[in-house]
Amino acid sequence: MSQVSIVIPTLNEAASLGRTLRQLTLLNPPPFEVIVVDSGSEDQTLAVAKQGFGSFNQSLYVQVVSCERRGRSIQMNYGASAATGDILCFLHADTWVPDDLITIINKTLGEPTIACGGFISLMSGSQTTRWGISLHNYLKTYYAPLLFKPHLFFRGLRLLFGDQVMFCRRTDFWDCSGFDEALPIMEDGDLCLKLVKKGRIHQVNRIVHSSDRRVAKWGSFKANAIYLYIGFLWGIGVDANYLKQFYQDIR
């Protein structure tokens, strides 16, 4: 079985990170390592990352590193450069994974024609499950590449996004130069476009649970409108730096 390194980028994620880390202690088999990459959190994120595992699980190796530059793509590359596992798995601090995550990842990438995988993201919060948005997110994995990159769709392109817990081989990741650090958003879709040259992009038929905090802040109608607007403009080639203004950070 290949060794899996889990990379978690953080910025003011104290409210979510503890639960995510506790769930990682339940993984069977465990990951090879967990790397939390913080970029100057002003809350208790570092305390949660550094102290939590001492009481949760002494056997799970967690490395906490500080990245001077902010940006999810920058932090994930920084974490990937510190990782030593055969496979990289990128996990958001507000996303919760199944207990057999490592087995699923190994089984998926055990197929040599698959270069990258991700899950079906079920978005939910303390009050509700966002069934409509979750369904749309599932479908856009397929319809977005079919609409904008049909020649690549039939070669195996699927567009995965960060809350789908993307994973790939470390060698393939660096052969593709990792995440584009110039992109403030859509770095995950961009990585799929690069990794499809290595093999198929596969959406695993299992779910992960992601926080609905952005939808709760915006409201379902506004959130869907923003997701569609950003996705369409990115699909036709609009610069992601322009699109970032419509996608504010919400904690």
Automatic annotation (TrEMBL):
Pathway entry: Carotenoid biosynthesis; staphyloxanthin biosynthesis; staphyloxanthin from farnesyl diphosphate: step 4/5
Domain Glycosyltransferase 2-like: 5-142
Localisation per UniProt entry: Cell membrane
Domain of life, per lineage: Bacteria
Record flagged with keyword Cell membrane: yes
Keywords: Cell membrane, Glycosyltransferase, Membrane, Transferase
A Pfam family matched in the record: Glycos_transf_2
GO terms of molecular function: transferase activity
Keyword Protein transport assigned: no
Classification via SUPFAM superfamilies: Nucleotide-diphospho-sugar transferases
Described purpose of this protein according to its UniProt entry: Catalyzes the glycosylation of 4,4'-diaponeurosporenoate, i.e. the esterification of glucose at the C1'' position with the carboxyl group of 4,4'-diaponeurosporenic acid, to form glycosyl-4,4'-diaponeurosporenoate. This is a step in the biosynthesis of staphyloxanthin, an orange pigment present in most staphylococci strains.
Family, similarity comment: Belongs to the glycosyltransferase 2 family. CrtQ subfamily.
Entry protein name: 4,4'-diaponeurosporenoate glycosyltransferase
